[in-house]
Write a structure and sequence with these properties.
This protein is α+β, with helices and mostly antiparallel strands. The chain has a single domain, classed as Thrombin, subunit H. 20% of the residues lie in helices and 24% in strands. It has eleven helices and 19 strands. The strands form four sheets. Strands 6-7-8-11-10-9 form a six-stranded antiparallel barrel. Strands 5-14-13-17-18-12 form a six-stranded mixed β-sheet. It has a three-stranded antiparallel β-sheet with strand order 15-16-19, with no helix packed on it. 54% of the residues are buried.
C-alpha cells in the first residue's frame, strides 16, 4: 500500500481537514445496515474482470463441484494433497500460466490466531516517476491526517470492517476488507469488497491462496494481545470466512504489480465467501453490510470521506482498527489513467483494501478502497468506482451471489 514519496507541495491545511472530518464523524455509522442494494440493477454487460470459482472439499460441506473435477485434474491439483500442504508449491511458471484459476479449498484450522499474527502487510508501491508523470492533474498533496483508533467493541461500531488474510509466495499476508450488500440476495449477502492487490498479483503472477475474511478482527481492540495464546473467539468473533469465488478488474490483472502505477486506478476486488463453520450468511452473522456507490462525484465535489482499516506496518501492529477522515483531492499517476481519490492519512500497510465511506442521504455507502500511499505514510489514494467496477460487482452478484 506504500509508494515512494512524491514531490507535490502541501496545499491543504490541517484546519480544512479537521472541519471536513467533523461533520462526517457525526453522520458516519458503519453498523447501520443500509436499505436497498448496491447498484440497484441487474448485471449490465460483461465486466472487465476475471472471476473464477474456488473449491471446497472439507467437513462434509459443499464438496468439489462436479463441473470442476476435470479442470482441477488438468492442472494437476489434488485437493487432498493441496490441503495437506501442496498449496505451498509456488512454481512461478505454473503460477503465471494458470493465473485465471482461483483455487481456494477450505483448510479448517489453517488460519489460527497465531498464524494470523504472523501475516505481513501487503504493500503496493509506485515510483516517484510514476507519481510525478501527471502532477498537473493531481491536486496539491494533502496535509497528514492522524489516524484515529475505532471505538470498541468493533462489532458495535464498525461491524462490516475486517481483515483479509491470504498466502503469497512470500508467506502469509494481510489486508483489510468490508462487508457489502448483495442486490440479488437482500439481507443475506456473502460479498466482501477489498483491493485487487490483496487477491491477485496482477501481471506479475496469479491468484493468491487460502483467502479468508475475518470480520471485526480482535473485537475488543486489545493492543497487547498475544496471537499465540489468544483464543479464536477473541480474535475472530464471527469466525473465518473463506473466499469460494473472487473477481478483480482486468485493468489490475493486466497492469497491476508491486511497483509501477498502471494498475492502481483499477485496484479493487470482490470476494464471495462462506463460513468455515456455520450456515448463516455473512450479513446475517455480522448484522451489517454497506451499499456500494458507483456514481460518487469526483474529488473536490464528494465532500468528506473516511477510510477504515487495520494498519500493520510500524508504528502500528495490525491488532487495532483505525480510521481517517478528510475531504478528498484528485490524484493521477498518468494522463492516460483514471484519476483516483486522495486523502490525508497516517495509516500504513495492512490497511490496503479497507473501505472508504461517505454519507449519502443519511446512509453510509462505500465509495472506494485503499490502494497506495507514500513511504512516509502521510496520505492514501484509492480508485474512483465507475462503470467497470459496477459491472464487476453486478456480475459477481448475479452469477455467484445467490449461491
Amino acid at each position: 500500500m506504500r509508494s515512494t514519496r512524491t514531490s507535490t507541495p502541501h496545499g491543504r491545511g490541517r484546519r480544512r481537514a479537521v472541519l471536513a472530518a467533523t461533520g462526517l464523524v457525526a453522520a458516519l455509522t458503519l453498523t447501520a445496515t443500509a436499505c436497498g442494494g448496491s447498484g440497484g440493477n441487474e448485471a449490465n454487460g460483461k465486466p472487465d474482470a476475471t472471476a473464477s470459482r474456488a473449491v471446497d472439499s472439507g467437513g462434509g460441506r459443499a464438496g468439489i463441484p462436479s463441473d470442476l473435477t476435470d479442470r482441477l485434474k488438468e492442472h494437476g491439483i489434488d485437493v487432498g494433497k493441496w490441503k495437506e500442504g501442496g498449496w505451498q508449491d509456488w512454481d512461478r511458471d505454473k503460477w503465471l500460466s494458470e493465473a485465471q484459476d482461483f483455487v481456494n479449498p477450505v483448510i479448517e484450522g489453517l488460519w489460527e490466531p497465531e498464524r494470523m499474527g504472523s501475516a505481513q502487510e501487503a504493500d503496493k508501491t509506485v515510483t516517484t516517476k510514476d507519481a510525478s508523470a501527471a502532477q498537473g492533474v493531481s491536486d496539491p498533496e494533502p496535509a497528514p491526517v492522524r489516524a484515529e483508533a475505532e471505538k470498541t467493541p468493533y462489532h458495535e461500531n464498525a461491524a462490516p470492517v475486517g481483515k483479509v488474510f491470504f498466502d503469497s509466495p512470500d508467506g502469509p499476508a494481510v489486508c483489510s476488507g468490508t462487508v457489502i450488500k448483495d442486490v440479488n440476495r437482500p439481507g443475506r449477502s456473502n460479498l466482501v469488497w477489498t483491493a485487487g492487490h490483496c487477491v491477485h498479483a496482477g501481471a506479475d503472477g496469479g491468484w493468491y491462496r487460502n483467502l479468508v475474511f475475518v470480520p471485526a478482527y480482535n473485537d475488543l481492540g486489545t493492543s497487547d494481545v498475544d496471537p499465540g495464546t489468544a483464543n479464536a473467539q477473541e480474535i475472530a468473533p464471527y469466525g473465518n470466512w473463506w473466499a469460494d469465488w473472487a473477481s478483480t478488474s482486468g485493468g489490475w490483472i493486466q497492469g497491476g504489480s508491486r511497483s509501477g502505477g498502471d494498475g492502481a486506478p483499477y485496484d479493487y476486488a470482490v470476494l464471495h465467501v462462506k463460513p468455515e463453520q456455520g450456515s448463516k450468511s455473512l450479513e446475517e452473522t455480522v448484522g451489517a453490510a454497506l451499499d456500494v456507490d458507483f456514481s460518487a462525484p469526483s474529488a473536490g465535489e464528494a465532500g468528506s470521506m473516511g477510510a477504515w482499516g487495520y494498519p500493520a506496518a510500524p508504528p502500528y501492529n495490525g491488532l487495532r482498527m483505525f480510521k481517517c477522515l478528510d475531504a478528498p483531492g484528485r490524484f493521477s499517476l498518468s494522463p492516460d489513467l483514471p484519476t483516483m481519490y486522495r486523502i490525508g492519512c497516517t495509516m500504513t500497510g495492512g490497511s490496503s483494501g479497507g473501505g472508504w465511506f461517505r454519507v449519502v442521504n443519511g446512509r453510509t455507502v462505500l465509495v472506494s478502497n485503499t490502494s497506495i500511499g507514500p513511504t512516509d505514510n502521510t496520505w492514501l489514494a484509492g480508485p474512483q468506482l465507475g462503470e467497470d467496477a459496477e459491472a464487476l460487482y453486478q456480475n459477481m452478484s448475479k452469477t455467484y451471489g445467490g449461491q
